[in-house]
Amino acid sequence: MALTLHGTVSDNTVALDRKTATPLIINGDMQIAQRGTSTSSITLGNYRTLDRFYINNGGIGSFTNIQSTDVPTGQGFASSFKLDCDTSDSPTGTEWLSMVYRTEAQDLRPLKFNTSSAEEFTISFWVKSSKTGTYTLAINNNDSARGISQTYTINSANTWEKKVLSFAGDTAGAIANDNGIGLILYWVLSAGADRKSSPLQTSWGAYDLSAFVDSSQVNLGDSTSNDWYITGVQLEVGSFDANSIPDFQFEDRGTSLARCQRYYVRQEKQSTNQIVCVGMSTSTTQAFGEYYYPQVMRATPTFSVSDVADLQCVRTGGNTDPTSVLLQNASNIVGNIKSVVSSGFTAGQAMFLRFDSDAVSTPPQFIDFDSEL
User: Fold this and answer.
1) Any idea which fold 2-260 has?
2) 279-294 burial: b if 16+ Cβ within 10 Å, else e
């Protein structure tokens, strides 16, 4: 059977009404989790487990985030994003809890925003929760400070349900053609009164904090028995319903990982004496080694290590533990890792930086490069 885009349906051809060849949501099937598969005691916003999906906890109790194997049956998914309430709480004021996805602005050119041809778009996903009721999916155009929201309902507890939400295109709000933040998608899970004191903003307009969340929004944080799962997140150009939405576009693991590594790279210790980079000492106290990222990153990344004590500088004459390791003269393609020691180097001497000679440990030893939106 042949597949064509925007073709005519015949006996041996299936037309796919899809306007982008590559999924606009990266890691929507939740298969990539470079940071790890579980993080507990989440009380602040950050990327935690699943790549590209951010947890925004603005004062609602405590949660655990897990890459779960609980998935809708017969849909091809192997992983889901799970959020589990550890400490219950009631939101007040502007406090809120959400799962967030930030799109890169230049990827959204097919939406044609800020023109008379602005395209409708549809967001679909599979969701499951022990907490039934009304939830909000809110969208913020970061470049134009404009917003729109819709609700969806979890009807049956602990049951996977597919949700399909279509949104109007915005003829008045531009999205920049750059590598900054475009649309921000918020799956709201709890919100204080200040975020839902006005009627829900269901058409595009100036971002209004008070109209961001529906007044009937449930509080996922009201019981430690509550949990929430999501997978199969996709964004399609065009308006679709549950019967017409194109099937989820699965990507092979290598492709999905490469796309995630545009925003974040973790090199984790996998073996004893694993080398990080090779370089040369430039004085008795410092050395440099070039590190080429596995993918061109969105922007020059920030750099961090699990612990400086996890690393060793190796040269002729012995090993030296660095006192600090940092990134210098970096770009979005390559960075120079600078190792500083108290003494012992010889200028011009070859050196390599490696993870220490101990066995692979738990928690893991790692270096991180971060250019997340």
Assistant:
1) Jelly Rolls (2.60.120)
2) bbbeeebbbbbebebe
